[in-house]
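Weekend entry, working from home. Most of the wet-lab plans are on hold until the incubator is repaired, so I used the time to fold the two sequences that have been sitting in the queue since the last round of cloning. Logging both here for the record. First:
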Amino acid sequence: MQCLDSAPYLLIIELIRKAWIAEDEGQTCKGVSPSIISDNMSHELINLTQYGPPPDMRKRIYLECVADIKNKNASATGSIIVLWALLRMYTMNFKRIV
């Protein structure tokens, strides 16, 4: 199976992080809560994980998310969601193997 390049993953991750920044600031987008956007994007990220990202990029994403959380950035909640989405697919694959 061929891996997708980094663009789709990075776009979705950025949308998730920005949605949570907007949520914390009480913003909406045409009446839609940013948490709804984040929820939809996290499901898209889960769906994309069947095509990647490649291990080196996955590691980079993990490290960026952990640093974001450690530094208590405004986007930390989004990074938690990203980690959850990526690790969820990993555990689903692990359950199939066991």
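Second, folded right after the first finished:
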Amino acid sequence: MARNVLRKKSPFEYEVTTENIEKGTNWLTLRLKNTSKDTLRGIDIQLHSLDTCYLTVFGTGFYRKYLESGKEEKDLVFQINVLGSADVYLTIRTRKEGGAYFLWESGRTHISLDEEKAELERLVVLSHPYTTIGKTLSAETTVRGLRNGVGLKVEFWVETPSGKFEEQAKIDIKELSAGEEARYTAEFTPTETGDYTVYAYLFDGSKRIGYKTDLVYAQKE
């Protein structure tokens, strides 16, 4: 189950169609429009997975010699294999008339199986991008129900600057209705200088159906 959104990031307007995603082979359709005043040339379009354990992209992408200002490509179809929820994004290498090549990258599009009960919408460490050693922080994640379901669980983990991977909390979700959103939090206290990566995992039984990460830097006061 997915929600298609028309997105804009110069010099493109784009939409990835993701309805009816089932386990196994699926197809994603890209609509791409040139919103700049220039004709774009040598357009190399690639789709990438951010979780190759659960989603694999097949093929070598698409190449177009040019795309005029205001024109669009409607039916660029990518074949994917899906085992579980994952995020995908696009990269496009192109150039303006007479100009040098540049690399364009889209935002993330979340792909979830129609059979899944819920999805992780976001994870936020309730702090500035940096904090001080010894200060306790809260991490908050939002879970959205896709259908009525039970047996869900959220886990919080933190990877420390020294490479330790530590569990912070394990929370059972008693019940979540379709369209309902619920927030869950966990606390941790940095003890060393450096980057802390915070992970939130969503499980349906023993199967991971989603995860998000956030980053915070700890320093001496």
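Plan for Monday: verify the second prediction. The chain has two domains: 7-111, 118-219.
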